[in-house]
Amino acid sequence: MSEPRKGLIRRFFGAIWKVFKAFKAVVLNLLFIFIVAIVLVAMFSGEDEVKIADTAALVLNLNGDLVEEKRWVDPFASAINESLGAGEELPEILVSDVVKVIETATTDNRIQAMVLDVSGLGSASLDKMQRVGVAIDDFKAAGKKVFSHGAYYGQTQYYLASYADEISLSPMGAVLLEGYGSYPMYYKDALEKLKINTHVFRVGTYKSAVEPFLRSDMSEAAKEANIAWLSGLWDSYKQDVSSRRGFDISNFDETYEALFQKLQAADGDTAQYAIDNGFADNLATREQFRQKLIDIVGENDKHVYNHVGFDDYAKYAIANTNFVNPLTSKVAVVVARGMIVDGSAKAGTIGGDSTAALLRKARFDDKVKAVVLRIDSGGGSAFASEVIGQEISLLREAGKPVIASMGAVAASGGYWIAAPANEIWASPTTITGSIGIFGLLHTAENSLASLGLNVDGVGTTELAGLSSGLPLYQGLTDKAKDIMQLLIERGYTEFLTMVGSNRNMSISEVDAVAQGRVWTGSTALELGLVDRLGTFDDAIAAAAEKAGLDNYDVQVITQELSPTEQMLKELFGTAQANGWLPQTQVSPEQLMLQRVGKQLRKDLVILNQFNDPNGIYSYCVTCSIN
User: Fold this and answer.
1) Same domain, 209 and 288
2) Half-sphere CA count of 489, side-chain side, radius 13 A
3) DSSP character string of 520-538
4) CA 394 distance to own-chain centroid
5) Which residues are catalytic?
6) Under a CB-based contact definition with an 8 Å cutoff, are residues 403 and 543 in contact?
7) 33 lies in which domain range?
8) Whole-angstrom Cα distance, residue 197 to residue 192?
9) What pLDDT is attached to residue 626?
10) At 517, phi and psi to the nearest 5?
11) Together in a domain, 409 and 503
12) What is the pLDDT, as a whole number, of residue 207?
């Protein structure tokens, strides 16, 4: 190639490189300017002062899932999402924040009424809504009225709405109370088609956590256990709602025939069906409801009744920084919510090391005299559960009583970490028990072979390659399976022994109520698995009593943020979804696809969090309800 031609080629590609570098510089500069702009906005756009009229209604417009502890969200990512109008993908609301807001409104003379806007409420267990309901009842006892208005009430939304003095429904609205169910997705046939081999090691007749990988349907043993606790929850739901609404418990429709007959009597009008059944008190358009509230609390300059929303009132009711009085004795609260995993984990997941560190912090704090462990977990890593359990035992040895307070779920590993406590408190609807363990391993030797991929080699022992995951590619030998089953059986014996020693029960007595079976809190009390039924506040009072405290403060112990995380939180911590959005209406086909996708993602997330160093788990997969 001639020199002139080579030079031309060099100049051509050199020009392309210069253009690329210039383009990269422009993009990086724009990104830098964008980040700086967000920082400046976060620093200098101060919060608007919350203005409340002399007479106003608190609009409890809850948007998201009601939780014990919010999962950790990167504040920078949250700020970026908000700036792009994306908002939070799965917003969460602390039940303690909701209670605090209502308690403050109860003594606020400006707040004359409450409006329950439950259209944005996501998942919420009965025990959490009951805790909110206690605060609503206190609000009503102060002589203030509570109203609820909506176009559609699902089962969760209606339970909270039933605390209202009056429920009004849109003339084209509906109320659907369908009962509880547990419908896991089963993967056996799909795994066989993919030539994936499933190896399961378990103990417990009712330990159904691994069934989705072994069967195409639910076993009779699992159906028997699941319908028992699901029926207990449904009975509690019906009893609570019927007593508040003043109708008989038989008023609920549990068959298509019963629902058809009542709808037929209402000429297919779902709103009239709700009125006839006593689910709603009256039909009202948004304008009619607006006028009703104007008559009670007055009208603002936008021709809307005087009101303040939940988020705005929370700024007034909840201090941004919690002052800890260094002089008072404390009942410490440690929240254990989510999957139990080995190592450290952010809020919303229970890390064996990180949760044990919170308990250890309480142990070495001289002002902490007692601890309440608030549990909302279906379990996970057996090793991590034991790490947490050991720290609870050390708290007791230090003379600091520990009360385990069970929330919606405290099963499998969730029960493991509760057992060492001085006392276990549960709500009647808590899902607990599921005392059993399992091991789960998928191997892909057949799948790889079908693709023409093979793994082979030599080792100095039969065990060579075990820690590097070789069995995943070559499969498990019969002897390896025997060893794994032996370890699982040993783990189950240790679980039974630990529960028995802490609950003053023999191993045979524990085994009789274990076997992986799930119970409600009420039944668990009868079986000796819990000590008392009561609320979170009852558990705090019990902890104070055991510590001999008359005057004390409640202190929630949380993970400390790193300096970088703290800076980002201060800069972007105010980022949150702006207001609430009505639920988007979707077709049945879209809803089906959404639910299938959600279930697949949920199962994959659970499998991804299985990180026990011994591969042994105590987890209840059926402890979630549909």
Assistant:
1) no
2) 6
3) EHHHHHHHTS-SEE--HHH
4) 28
5) 207, 412
6) yes
7) 1-45
8) 7
9) 60
10) -80, 145
11) yes
12) 59
Is 365 a domain residue?
A: yes
Taking the CB of residue 256, how many other CB atoms lie within 10 A of it? 8
Q: Look at residues 295, 320, 345 and tell me which one is the last residue of a structural domain.
A: 320
- Per the CB < 8 A criterion, the answer to whether 396 and 430 are in contact is no
Token pair listed for 229: 């606790």
Are 232 and 167 found together in one domain? no
Based on its alpha-carbon atoms, the radius of gyration of the chain, rounded to whole angstroms, reads: 28
Q: What is the CATH classification number for the domain harbouring 300?
A: 3.90.226.10
Per DSSP, the three-state class of 56 is strand
Instruction: Report the alpha-carbon distance of residue 430 to residue 233 in Å, rounded.
Output: 9
Amino acid at residue number 358? L
Under DSSP, is residue 67 helix (H, G, I), strand (E, B) or coil?
strand
Residue 211 has a pLDDT of 85
Q: Which of 69-78, 310-319, 423-432 has the highest mean pLDDT?
A: 423-432
* CA dist., res. 275 & res. 312, Å (int): 33
- Residue showing tokens 């007959």: 261
DSSP string for residues in 320-363: SS----TTS-EEEEEEEES-EESS---TTSEEHHHHHHHHHHHH
Helix and strand element counts for the chain (H, E):
23, 22
What mean pLDDT do residues 193-213 have?
79
Domain edge (last residue) among 289, 320, 351: 320
414 falls within a domain? yes
Inter-residue contact 176 to 153 (CB < 8 Å): yes
Alpha carbon 249 to chain centroid, angstroms? 29
Mode of pairing for the β-strands spanning 330-337 and 307-309? unpaired
Q: Is the Cβ–Cβ distance between 174 and 153 less than 8 Å? A: yes
pLDDT at 358: 97
pTM flag (> 0.85): no
Q: Is residue 239 part of a domain?
A: yes
Question: How many CB atoms sit inside 10 A of residue 607's CB?
Answer: 11
Torsion of CA 474, 475, 481, 485, to 10 degrees: 120
pLDDT at 43 over 50: no
Residue among 388, 404, 419 nearest 495 (CA): 419
d(CA 406, CA 413): 12
Q: If residue 408 lies in a helix (H) or strand (E), which one and from where to where?
A: strand 402-411
* Domains contained in the chain, number: 3
User: pLDDT tens across 1-12, in order?
Assistant: 555 555 555 565
Structure tokens at 525: 């009390």
Same domain as 445, residue 401: yes
Clarify whether residues 310 and 447 are in a common domain. no
Residue 137 vs residues 21, 141, 163, 165, 249: alpha-carbon distances, Å: 65, 6, 7, 10, 21
610: left (phi over 0), alpha (psi -120 to 50) or beta: beta
Q: Of 617, 435, 436, which Cα lies nearest the Cα of 527?
A: 435
* Measured distance CA(308)–CA(56) in Å, rounded: 7
Is the separation of the CB atoms in 613 and 374 below 8 Å?
no
Q: What span, in angstroms and rounded, lies between the C-alpha atoms of 251 and 241?
A: 11
162/107 same-domain check: yes
**Structural domain contains residue 167:** yes
Q: What are phi and psi of 419, to 5 degrees?
A: -55, -40
Q: CA 256 to CA 262: how far, in whole Å? A: 10
**Domain co-membership, 72 together with 211:** no
Query: Of 97, 121, 93, nearest to 581 (Cα)?
Result: 121
Residues 423, 500: one domain?
yes
